[in-house]
Design a protein that fits this description.
Structural class: mainly alpha
Largest sheet: none
Helix content: over 70%
Strand content: under 5%
Distance between the termini: 42 Å
Shape: elongated
Radius of gyration: 17 Å
Number of strands: 0
Amino acid sequence: MTTRSGHRLASLGFLRLGLYGLALLDILIPACYWLVETLAGSAIDESLVSIIATLVTPVMAPILLVVILFDYVMSRIRVADEQGDLRAYYLLICRIELLLIGVMLAYWIPYFVML
């Protein structure tokens, strides 16, 4: 990772990076669980991993989506107020969050439609 991209990543802030990481984990945990279950050919016994993958992550998806949408709205407000480099910074945040919202919706909408 270059210095410039490392600086840009670090400039997003600890809380925002944590939110993005939780959103990505919310997608990766059930996907990895499904992959392991498919390759094993049978259901995995009830364990903490299966409980997290089948019960906790679907509940956390809408919560994380609302928090990311709230951060997106706040970033759009900041875009309207700022100029120059700060405006570009908040536009970058908005683009990242829209991308993350799109990925989360693409992953979780089929799950909730099947319910």
